[in-house]
Amino acid sequence: MRKSLLATTVALTALLAGGTAQANDGLMKDIGNSSNWAIQTGDYANQRYSKLDQINKDNVKDLKVAWTFSTGVLRGHEGSPLVIGDMMYVHTPFPNNVYALDLANDGAIKWVYEPKQDPNVIPVMCCDTVYRGLAAANGMIFLHQADTTVVALDAATGEVKWSVKNGDPSKGETNTATVLPVKDKVIVGISGGEFGVRGHVTAYNMADGSVAWRGYSMGPDSDTLINPEKTTHLGQPVGKDSGTNTWEGDQWKIGGGTTWGWFSYDAETNLMYYGSGNPSTWNPKQRPGDNRWSMTIFARDVDTGEAKWLYQMTPHDEWDYDGINEMILADIKVKGEDRKALVHFDRNGFGYTMDRVTGELLVAEKFDPKVNWATHVDLKTGRPQVVAKYSTEQNGEDVNSTGICPAALGSKDQQPASFSPKTQTFFVPTNHVCMDYEPFRVSYTAGQPYVGATLSMYPAPDSHGGMGNFIAWDAGEGKIKWSKPEQFSVWSGALATAGDIVFYGTLEGYLKAVDANTGDELYKFKTPSGIIGNVMTYERGGKQYVGILSGIGGWAGIGLAAGLTDPQAGLGAVGGYAGLKNYTRLGGQLTVFELP
Fold first, then answer.
1. What is the mean pLDDT of the segment spanning 53-58?
2. From the candidates 320, 331, 346, 474, which is the catalytic residue?
C-alpha cells in the first residue's frame, strides 16, 4: 500500500510540475527538470522537494562552500534564487535589484536591473522591506516591486518588456510576495493589511500585462468573484454577498485580508490556492462579525478568477493570525483513506488538511502543543473553539490579555514548509513564541498605520526556553513525528530532498541539514548574517549544489534590520528577539555549497 501511495504522489508531482499541456509548457518543462530551481516554491504544488540525491544523509557532513555572491543590499533577504539551465537569477530586498549570473562563466554578472523606487515606500512596508523572489516563464523574468510595479524582464538581456502598477503606496498598498506564472497569466497579490488595504489577487496577461481578472478578499460578489450558489464553504453555498454581510456598514472597504503569501496550482482542477491575511484593524471591537473573507483559504479558477470554494480558519480574528501561509498539495492517506489533499500550517497554530477538490476539512490539529487561544477546531463547522481567557474581544479594549500562544507572528509565518513524497512527511519551520496583546481604538487615515493594538512577545513558557522548533508532521493524522528545538524562530524555508535530508536556516545564520527520518543534525555552517531566506538546490555539470540567501531581517529580525530598540516596536517583535544582536549582524549574501 505504501509503495502504491508513493507512486501516486510522484504522479501528482509530475502532473503539477512536469508535463501537462494545460499549463505553460515551457515553465512546466523547466520545473520538471530537477537540475533547475525554476519557481520559488520548487513546483506548483509548493512541495519544496528535490529529487536530487547526490548530497545525502551519509555525505552531507562533507559540504563546503563552493562560491558566494554579495547582493550589495542590507535588510531582510527572503525567498531564493532561481536557476534555469546555465543562468541564475538573484533578487534583493528594496530596492529590488535583479542580477542575472552566468553559471557557465564562473557566475559572471550578465545583466543587472536596478529599479528606481520612491524611498517613501519603505515606511509603508510592514515588518521590513523583504521580497520573496522572482518568477520565470516564456523567456521572461517577473519582478513585483515593493511599490507594486509588476515588471516583465527579458531573461536574456534584462530589458523591460512591460510593466504595470498593481497598487498605490500612498494608500499603504505595497508588495513583498512573489508571483505565480501559470498558463498565459501572471497572478499577483498585495500587501498592506496594517494600513487598511483591501486585499486582492490580480491576473495579468503574460504577453502584455493587461488585466485578465481581479478578485478581492471582501466586498460584493462582483468584487470577490464569488458565485453565491456555486462557491462553497465546507460544502455549503456561501449565499449572496458573503463578503459584505459579516461586516458592519462599509468597513469591508478597509477590511484587510491582503494576499502577500504563496500561491500553489493544480493543473488537474485548474485551481490556484492561497490564503488571505488579517482583517483591519487589529482591534476586534471595531469590526463586529466574522469579517469574511479575511483569514481564508481560497480556491480560484485561474482562467476566470471565480472562487470554487473557501474556508475561513479564524473568523473575527482577534490576534493577527494572518492566513497567508502556503498551501501544499499532496496525494496522501488521511486517516487511512487516499485523498487529494491540501495541507496548510496556519499562523494560528493549527495544521489543516483539506480535500483540495471539494474544500472538505479533514484534519485540524495543533502543530505546537503550547497553542492555547483555542481548545480545538470543530470539523463540522470549521470554527475554532476560543478560550475566553485569551480572547482579546471578550477581554475588551484597553485591557492587556496576557499569555496568548502563539504570538501574532504565529506558530509559523510565511517561511514555507516542505513535503517529501519519499517519507510522506511535512517538514515545518516554526515559531515557539507567545504574547501579551492590548487592543485600543484607532481611526482610519489612508496611507497611515491602522493597527490598534500594542504587543509584547516572548518565548513559550514552561518549554525548552527557545523561540523555535523545526518539526516533522504527519498531515494524515495531525501529529508531530519529531521536533528539533531552536534558540530563535526558524524563519527560513525548508527543503526536503531524495537524499533523505532536510535543509533549513536559522536566525543566527546557520544553514543546517537534518536526517529526514529522525531530525538528527548532520551538518551546520555559519553564514555571514541571519537566514530568513529559503533553501534551494540545483545541478550543473553532474554536480548538485545547495544555495541560501542570508541577510537578517523580516518581522523577527526587524530590530536589527531597521535599528529599532523599543521593545514594543516592530509590532512587538523587537523586544522578543533582542538577543539576536549577540549572534549576527546585517548582511546580504548568497552562499552556494557543494561536496568536495
1. 98
2. 320
Spatial distance between the Cα atoms of 197 and 125, rounded to a whole number of angstroms: 12
pLDDT greater than 50 at residue 11: no
State the amino acid at position 80 in one-letter form: S
Contact 177, 144 (CB under 8 A): yes
Tell me how far apart the alpha carbons of residues 535 and 591 are, in angstroms, rounded to a whole number. Answer: 10
Contact 394, 378 (CB under 8 A): no
> Residue 303 region, left (φ>0) first, then alpha (ψ -120 to 50), else beta?
alpha
The yes-or-no answer on residue 320 being catalytic is: yes
Check residue 23 and give its pLDDT.
Answer: 57
- Cis ω for the linkage preceding 406 (within 30 of 0): yes
Distance of CA 103 to the CA centre of its chain: 28
pLDDT in tens, 73-82: 999 999 999 9
As a whole number, the mean pLDDT across the chain is: 95
Asked whether the bond before 555 is cis by omega within 30 degrees of 0, the reply is: no
How far is residue 527's CA from residue 546's CA, in Å, rounded to a whole number? 13
- For the segment 98-151, what is each residue's pLDDT rounded down to a tens digit? 999 999 999 999 999 999 999 999 999 988 999 999 999 999 999 999 999 999
Strands (E) across 56-176 are located at 64-70, 82-84, 87-91, 98-102, 108-113, 135-137, 140-144, 149-154, 160-165
Per-residue model confidence as pLDDT tens digits over 342-366: 999 999 999 999 999 999 999 999 9
DSSP structure string for 468-520: EEEEEEETTTTEEEEEEEESS---SBPEEETTSEEEEE-TTSEEEEEETTT--
Backbone torsions φ then ψ of 142, nearest 5 degrees? -105, 130
Query: Which residues, in sequence order, are bridge partners of residue 468?
Result: 431, 486
**Cα(393)–Cα(455) distance, rounded to whole angstroms?**
15
Phi and psi based region of residue 245 (left: phi greater than 0; alpha: psi -120 to 50; beta: remaining)? alpha
For 537-581, what is each residue's pLDDT tens digit? 999 999 999 999 999 999 999 999 999 999 989 988 999 999 999
Does residue 186 sit in helix, strand or coil?
strand
Measure the CA–CA gap between 92 and 20, rounded to whole angstroms: 32
d(C-alpha 489, C-alpha 459), whole Å: 9
d(CA 558, CA 313): 27
- Which helix (H) or strand (E) is 7 found in, with range? helix 2-17
Pairing of strands 200-205, 468-474: unpaired
| SS3 category, 57 | coil
Poorest-pLDDT segment among 238-242, 490-494, 573-577? 573-577
Judge residue 269's burial from the number of C-beta atoms within 10 Å of its C-beta, 0-12 exposed, 13-18 middle, 19 or more buried. Answer: middle
Model-level pTM?
0.95
Long-range contacts of 172-175 (CB under 8 A, 24+ apart): 172/124, 172/196, 172/197, 172/446, 172/447, 172/448, 172/450, 173/148, 173/197, 174/121, 174/124, 174/125, 174/126, 174/146, 174/147, 174/148, 175/131, 175/144, 175/145, 175/146, 175/147, 175/148, 175/260
Q: Taking the CB of residue 462, how many other CB atoms lie within 10 A of it? A: 6
- Determine contact, residues 354/342, Cβ cutoff 8 Å: yes
Cβ(373)–Cβ(386) under 8 Å? Answer: yes
